[in-house]
Design brief:
The protein is an alpha+beta fold. The chain has one domain. It has 3 helices and 4 strands, in the order βαααβββ. A 4-stranded antiparallel β-sheet has the order 1-4-3-2, with helices on one face.
């Protein structure tokens, strides 16, 4: 039915909600790994500044054109799209 590998998790961050994008990213990685966010072997702030991430994608997401950011976190490849899509793949 779906061509998405089992090691891939897709979710969407709602910019109009109260949750920060950085929190959504950590939750998506934890979900992909089947663990609690507090149990990750690497913290988001070890890879990038969570406040900078929130500012980069915050505000009116339609005014700055398309944005995509890719990075590695806790053994996963994370891709964030300006429209709120978050795609997490387990690294081989």
């Amino acid at each position: 039915m779906s061509d998405v590998p089992a090691s891939t998790h897709r979710t969407r961050h709602e910019f109009t909600g109260e949750r920060r994008l950085s929190t959504s990213v950590v939750q998506a990685v934890a979900t992909t790994l089947g663990t609690d966010p507090m149990s990750l072997n690497e913290r988001l702030y070890d890879v990038l500044d969570p406040d900078a991430l929130d500012r980069l994608f915050g505000g009116d997401s339609g005014t700055a054109g398309p944005r995509t950011l890719e990075f590695e976190l806790a053994g996963c490849s994370v891709t964030i799209h300006g429209d709120g899509r978050i795609v997490v793949r387990r690294s081989p």
